[in-house]
Amino acid sequence: MSAGNIRLYSYWRSSAAYRVRIALNLKGLPFETMPVHLLQDGGQQHTPEFNDLNPQELVPVLMHGNRILRQSMSIIEYLDETWPTPPLMPATARERQRVRAIAQMIACDIHPLNNLRVLQFMDKTWNVPQAERDTWTRHWIKVGLDAVEDTLCDNPSTGDFCDGEQPTLADCCLVPQVFNAERFGVDMAPYRTIRRIVQNCMAMDEFRNARPENQPDAPAAGGN
């Protein structure tokens, strides 16, 4: 299928959008970034126009022609099924299950607990101080990465990447989560396997070009 017109509604620092950018780059698919600033104007994701695209008022949203695609991992699987080369899922059912499990450990169990809307609720509804919110975030990232490291470490299916010798959906999820961990000051020293895999990923242009600071809507250093 022709790539046609692909537009990614994205926020530069959104880890979910970061996953999709990596997948698009790995597939070699050109796309137009449609910035949605999650902090300006009370959050541009809450506008009626964006609500029409995604009633959850979350990024990313990917437009492929007239198709409206939501939820980062389902978007990535759509890309993989529509443009199978290079594959982002392994060949066997067992391997695909492992990749999905690692991806979901990150996207379903770590990420939601430190997502922007959770932290904003803590701030605006419960007046939780910034230091305590940061402690919450670091705690749940560490709990999750401990489990991911144990899953990857010394497993014969782990190669240069989370599963084997080429990037998969799991790596698309891991790299943005490590970015978040570093942003919140999580000590990454204990995560030997995760650090090795991320280093291998960041040796690739497809991952480097997807980094938040390389996005067209990224602010000057120190901005939001």
SSE diagram, text form:
Blueprint: E1 6-10, H1 15-27, E2 32-35, H2 48-53, E3 61-64, E4 67-70, H3 72-82, H4 93-110, H5 116-126, H6 130-152, H7 169-183, H8 192-202, H9 205-208
Parallel strand pairs: 1-2
Antiparallel strand pairs: 1-3, 3-4
Helix pairs in contact: 1-3, 1-7, 4-6, 4-7, 7-8
Tell me what the structure shows.
It is a single chain. With 224 residues, the chain is an alpha+beta fold. It has nine helices and four strands. It has a four-stranded mixed beta sheet with strand order 2-1-3-4, covered by helices on one side.
Please provide a brief summary of the model:
The protein has 224 residues and is of the alpha+beta class. The chain is built from nine helices and four strands.
Shape: globular
Care to count the β-strands? 4
Give the strand line-up of the largest sheet: 2-1-3-4
Low-confidence stretches: none
Mean pLDDT: 96
Distance from N terminus to C terminus (CA atoms, Å) equals 37 Å
Question: What characteristics describe this protein?
Answer:
alpha+beta; 4 strands; 224 residues
